[in-house]
Design goal:
Helix content: 25-40%
Mean pLDDT: 89
Low-confidence stretches: 5-27
Number of strands: 16
Strand content: 15-25%
Number of domains: 4
Distance between the termini: 66 Å
Length: 474
């Protein structure tokens, strides 16, 4: 067996974790088979996840299977390109590369999936550890793991030399060593992975000025939408490019153009003055990244940027740019005022009671996500009792417990009869926590009588929830 510890780590010390890749499904897809074992996860669902693009990191499910009573699983699915796949059980994950047409066998090291640690699973989810069984001597994961080890050691040993002293010869030596180590491996994904990850070292060492760096790695080069390291390098290079990094564009009031009529064609025309962006498709991609950044930094630009995304979805000749624009539109409008609230059907106070969000249509709804071990949650819910008594005929109140076990919520409900409103349990529905972006407890959400978001997150009872309710019903 070859053991692959695909742990999530920073690609550079100053760059956040990125373990993402884009998949392209088409008529040229080839079938991939995966079998394996996950002792301790019997009865749970194992999912394979990829990402719709490497700017928004929109997750897409590739395949899933239920792990049988012996701890085994099997699934088949189609891939059209080499892809970085996240293997997930609940919120536990690990990642590996998969190639079209291949068969994979894996073993997941046992972990305690049913531990009773009362923690936020988003913060302290244990990584899965994968063993690929007999991957062969020329397996992509082996090459990439070996290269990453060498890269990380080189960066650890020479960061100060590169970043502070800017000694380019150290980088040249490393590049020559890499070429020697992997001479003869004719695998395009791997070669581009190394090329663009090593390019990140040039940024650290300032080995080239910004234009020459673009000329070496972007100008007149193919856009590698699905290569992790290409897109990592792209994201780093073009961060704040429209407003700060570009010598040309930072002199132009981009925000004013966004607010005017016909912003999309005017932006594309203005950006063409930058010689790095002379290719229309590449320029549009840089525009998308810049707009995505600006959306979260300036509230006045939100509505105009949404309209530009819609224009690109309609008019862009490049399919992948249209996909990215669609993902960006979905991201920036998720849980926004007026958008549909994510639906659910959850277990209530008894195990035979299941209630869905749709059943509460016709009245405004106040939802809060909570746990029995969260003191702040309980304090807010004590105040919620007063709001419930005052507004129960006009507003539905729902509290969704994120406790690991339903029985804890059930016991708590019995000792706190004053919490007389609807109590539901998330029942390991981690997708629901993701849908509502529940990162802390308590989290309140207010929904109108048609099922659309009013406030998410909303203030709790101690922070002005009653005012939101009054504005909604009057």
């Amino acid at each position: 067996m070859t053991k692959l510890s695909m742990k999530r780590q920073s690609l550079l010390p100053i760059i956040p974790i990125i373990t993402l890749v884009c998949l392209f499904f088409s008529s040229y897809s080839q079938q991939v088979s995966l079998t394996g074992s996950a002792v301790g996860a019997e009865g749970k669902t194992i999912r394979l996840i990829t990402w719709g693009d490497l700017i928004t990191f929109t997750e897409e499910k590739v395949a899933e299977a239920v792990i049988d009573t012996m701890g085994n699983f099997a699934m088949t699915f189609n891939l059209a390109a080499t892809s970085y796949i996240s293997v997930a059980i609940d919120l536990h994950r690990s990642d590996l590369f998969m190639q079209p047409g291949l068969t994979y066998r894996m073993k997941l090291a046992p972990i305690n999936y049913t531990d009773n640690l009362e923690v936020n699973p988003f913060i302290l989810s244990q990584n899965l550890e994968i063993e690929l069984i007999n991957p062969g001597d020329n397996e992509l994961n082996i090459w990439i793991n070996a290269y990453n080890d060498k890269y990380n050691q080189f960066l650890l040993d020479n960061f100060n030399v590169l970043y502070l002293e800017r000694k380019k010869n150290y980088l040249d030596t490393f590049r020559l060593q890499v070429n020697g180590w992997y001479r003869g491996i004719d695998q395009p994904y791997f070669q581009n992975y190394m090329r663009y990850k090593t390019a990140g070292l040039e940024q650290i060492a300032h080995a080239q000025n910004t234009y020459n760096l673009a000329r070496t790695y972007f100008i007149d080069k193919p856009i590698l939408y699905n290569n992790v390291e290409y897109m990592q390098f792209f994201n780093n290079y073009f961060t704040r490019y429209l407003t700060a990094s570009s010598d040309i564009l930072r002199k132009i009031d981009i925000k004013a153009i966004i607010k005017r009529t016909s912003p999309y064609p005017n932006l594309m025309k203005t950006m063409a003055a930058d010689s790095v962006l002379r290719n229309d498709t590449f320029r549009e991609l840089v525009l998308l990244k810049g707009l995505f950044e600006l959306f979260y930094s300036n509230q006045e630009l939100e509505d105009p940027i949404i309209e530009i995304f819609k224009t690109i979805i309609r008019e862009s000749p490049q399919e992948m740019n249209r996909v990215i624009a669609s993902n960006m539109l979905a991201k920036v409008t998720k849980l926004r005022h007026g958008t549909p609230a994510p639906g659910f059907s959850l277990m209530g106070r008894t195990k035979d009671q299941f209630l869905s969000l749709n059943e509460f249509r016709g009245k405004p709804v106040v939802i809060n996500f909570w746990t029995t071990f969260c003191q702040g949650c309980l304090a807010e819910m004590e105040l919620e009792v007063l709001l419930y008594e005052k507004y129960k005929d006009q507003v539905e109140f729902i509290s969704i417990s994120a406790d690991r076990y339903w029985i804890k919520m059930n016991y708590f409900a019995q000792i706190k009869p004053e919490f007389a409103w609807t109590l539901l349990h998330f029942s390991d529905n981690t997708d629901l926590l993701v849908d509502y972006e529940v990162r802390t407890y308590p989290l309140y959400v207010v929904i109108d009588k048609e099922g659309n978001i009013v406030r998410a997150p909303a203030p709790g009872p101690s922070e002005g929830l009653e005012q939101v309710i009054e504005e909604l019903i009057n």
